[in-house]
Amino acid sequence: MIKFRNIKGTHDLLPDQVAIWRQVENIIHLIMEQNGFGEIRTPVFENTDLFIRGIGTDTDIVSKEMYSWTDQGNNLLTLRPELTAPVARAYIQHQLSNKNPMHRLYYLDTLFRRERPQKGRQRQFHQFGAEAIGSPNPEQDAEIIAIAYNTFQKFKIQDMTVNLNSIGSPEIRIKYLKLLRSSLVKVQSKLCFTCQNRIEKNALRLFDCKNSNCQTLLDQNAPLIFDEISDSDYLHFDIVKRILNEVGIPFSHNKKLVRGLDYYSHTTFEITSKSLGAQDALCGGGRYNSLIEQLGGKHTPAVGFAAGLERLILALEKNQFPEKSPDIYFIHLGEDATIIASKIANDIRIEHGKVVIFEVLRRSLKAQMREAGRSKAKTVLILGDDELKKNKIIIKNMQSGEQKEIEISKLDQYFNNISN
User: What is the pTM of this model?
Assistant: First the structure.
């Protein structure tokens, strides 16, 4: 018989794991709302050309990692590998710029990339992020960085580092890439195979290489883009730093931080944590003033970040979100008692908002009590045919062991009293 298993690079989230995810997601929603951001949800697949234009043909995402196919209508479609381009597409399509000069959008959704699965990185994965669209000013950059940093602080993530840089305007980037390539001509053959290909296709990605020999050659031969930025770019970056200092967010200026996606300009940043081990990135982001124009909209400044939910949950302290226990485990014995117990359980859930686990396996009293203990329910209700004849129900406090019998008609009053 065929035994089906989940596809490589995907994971099932079982109820105890989902309970943690939901608590994490609820906190993220709350933080975003406190900062005035509204949630946006885009389709799980888009036209492939959206990502080619937005991310760039020479990125690993487009060239190696996208799940793409041609549908029955001969449309080339792709499961979204990132969310900034879809958000920008929605911004243009719905003419949001006509409704308000400033839009603060956030997302918490599923993405797909065919990369090598590893701890905290899967082929189907989840991200949350924020996009502030409309402001070209450095205070917006600083606010985005602060939202990301404060989110991770809320989750008590330890050993965090904010790496910060500026790659200047798109005009600076063009001039810099020519300078970078000419500076590496003599050592090109000594670089790893991947870096040799990147020199022409996406030279900024050289600084992302994990090969220590490549990094040594870059340190010795490569100019840094920050040293080429304009005076206005420098002023923009200086204000970002001053605001971060003022609000108490520690950062390091890392001149090698460039982020390889084509749409970035000016401020770039990344937050890492040693608690994640070798793959230490929690989130990354930056300014992308030209993306919306590239996708057919008006020139619109924007800045944002994206963070992996799997990475965040890996970094959480153990027992940070203890397992929630049910309020009530309802034990019942006998056919008539079962019918009445079903109604009582339903009423308690609706009228009092309690979490009630209702026994459905018709086990013995002893077995049901054992299951109630295993569930860590705070209270046990017991209704048998003998209690039903007296119109009584037994209530047992599982913490104190105290047990009492009350009239069924007074059960509502009992729960009202303990709620007050």
Answer: 0.89
